[in-house]
Structures are given as C-alpha cells and as structure tokens.
Fold Sulfotransferase.
Amino acid sequence: MMDSVQDAEVLAENNDFQELLQSLPFQRGTINLPLHLYKGFWYFDHSLEAVMAFHRHFQAQDSDIILVTAPKSGTTWLKSLVYAVVHRSQYTATDQNHPLLTTNPHGVVPFLELIYRNNKFPDFTSSPPRILATHVPYFMLPESIKTSKCQIIYLCRNPKDIFVSMWHFGNNVLPKRYPSWQPISIEESFERFCKGIEMFGPCWEQALEYWKLRIEKPEVLFLKFEDLKADINVQLKRIAEHLGCPFSPEEENRGVIEDIAHLCSFQHLSNIEVNKTGEGSIPQLENSVFFRKGEVGDWVNILTPSMAEKLDQVVEQKLHNSGLTLN
Ligand code: PAP
C-alpha cells in the first residue's frame, strides 16, 4: 500500500519537476556543463531534482550532523575531520583498522543530493549520529533540519581558490567522463564564475547566508578552509565542542587532536592507496580527483592580477558590511 502511494507521489513529482525545469533559466557554467537557475542558485538538472526530493522528504533526527560546503571548498577534508572526531572512541586516529584508511571520506559521509538522486524515499539505516553532507543553501534545507536540534557545520573557502580548484577539476575529470564535453578558455570560465554560474553557486551568496545564520542559530558552526590550514588543532577543538564531544584534558595530553589532524591531513589522506587508485565513492569518479594540492593561495599560479582584483571586487561588494571576508 505504502509503496503504491510512494510510486504515485514519485510520478507526480517527476511530472512537476519536468514542468518546472522547462521554465527555469538555463546556461553553461564555469566548467561548461549546463546549469539551471532556481531561486538564485545554479544546479545540474539531476542535482536539482535530488535536492528537491531531499527538501521534501528528509526527516532529520536531533542527533544528525549536517556538513555544508560549496563544491571545492574543502568538503573531503571536513568529512574526514568530523568523521574522525565523532567516531574517536570507536576508532582511535592511529588505529590500523580506521575506516578512513580503507574508505575515501565521501564513502563514510555521503552527500544527501546523491542519496536522493535515484531514490526519493531512501532507507537511512545507519545508527546515530548520522553524518551527512550537502552543497545546498540553507533555505533549500528541509524544514525538519531547520526545526530539529541537529548540528550544522558550514565550511567556506576563498572563492579565488575555489575557482582554481574547479577549473582543474573540470579539465581533469570531464574529458574522460563526458567524451563530448567541450573545453572552454579560462577567461570564459572565469567570467561565468564571477557571475556566480557554477554548480550550487554563487558560493559567496551561500557563505553569506550561513554566516548571517550562525548568529541566530547556535546549531550552525561557521568554519574557513584557511583557518583550518592555519591551525587545525584549534579548529578541531571548535568542531568537537560544537558537536558536544569536546576533547578531555586527558585526550589532549595523549595527543588525540594531533593524531586526528595527521590522519586527515592532505599529505596523509592523499597517499593512502584507496585515495590514489580507488574509485566510485562518488559515482563515476576516481577518488584521487578530490586530492590536488590542498593549499591556500594557489590562485596566484593561474589568475592574472586583474582577474584576482575583479573577483575580489565581486565578492567584496556582495559581502559589504556583513563582517565576513572571504579573500
Ligand atoms: P567537493 O568538490 O566534492 O565538494 P572538495 O573536497 O571541496 O570536494 O574539493 C577538493 C579540494 O579539497 C581540492 O582543492 P585544490 O584543488 O585546491 O587542491 C583538494 O585538494 C582539497 N582537499 C582534499 N582533501 C584535503 C585535505 N585533507 N586537506 C586540505 N585540502 C584538501
């Protein structure tokens, strides 16, 4: 009975979605794939459909931990850090059986928009706390997340480094994945990025929304990639405190924080076999595509000074008087 009700709901949603899609502005984005504009943000058609199913059907639990990022802002790192912090009593960071030694971070913390891509009523069987990730703006999160006590961790990154990471990702991944994909010039790609036409973008609009929200919602912890790079131990303490599992003085003395920082470091994770040669943590992608340089300021190697200035201005105009800086 339940199945047939769900089938009917899925059918109706599919029809409504196709109608909606036809009505949305449509353009190729930063890495030259087609994107649709919905309520101020750009999505692939399949991502938008999944995001809408997630929005409608996800039932949050108070113990859930939701990680939110713009693509290429350090999602893989954040997933590994939060997983290691939350599960540290089960697996110490030096445990030879630690799941992060055999599974890519995207395999231990799944994206909600991927869970909902092929199934509008997925079975969430994992035991609490569930750690789940998404790239969506706050207003697209389901009501059940907004009204529950579940914790949200938002991670942002300098948009210039996001662009550069995205540019390399597109050039490395897309020719293999989509043989008909047409490369574009970096100038054209950059122009589109400055207009915010990137998957789940504009990233600065998303960051600003979560930045404002952190004041009224103590459930939101706001992190910056650059702060993680500058002092990972301090940020790990913030994460653990936010999640209600602060490091004890005894753990600090034993070096637990440093061990987690090392386990999840770019140097360590990127050299683990599963992350060098494994694939499929995100469908059709090699795990190695999530590890390139992991640095701050790599944009100087690819953006001209005038490009950098232009993007800084776009972002600064948007963030004006908000107290948030991303550059
Ligand atoms: P997403 O696009 O699926 O959200 P995300 O992890 O945000 O994944 O993107 C990969 C970026 O995170 C890469 O940045 P880069 O191109 O500037 O190098 C990748 O190198 C970086 N990254 C992945 N793991 C780590 C890590 N442990 N520490 C620092 N940076 C990392």
Remarks:
- The mean pLDDT is 95.
- Residues 67 and 281 are 17 Å apart (CA to CA).
- The first strand starts at residue 26 and ends at 28.
- The two ends are 54 Å apart (CA to CA).
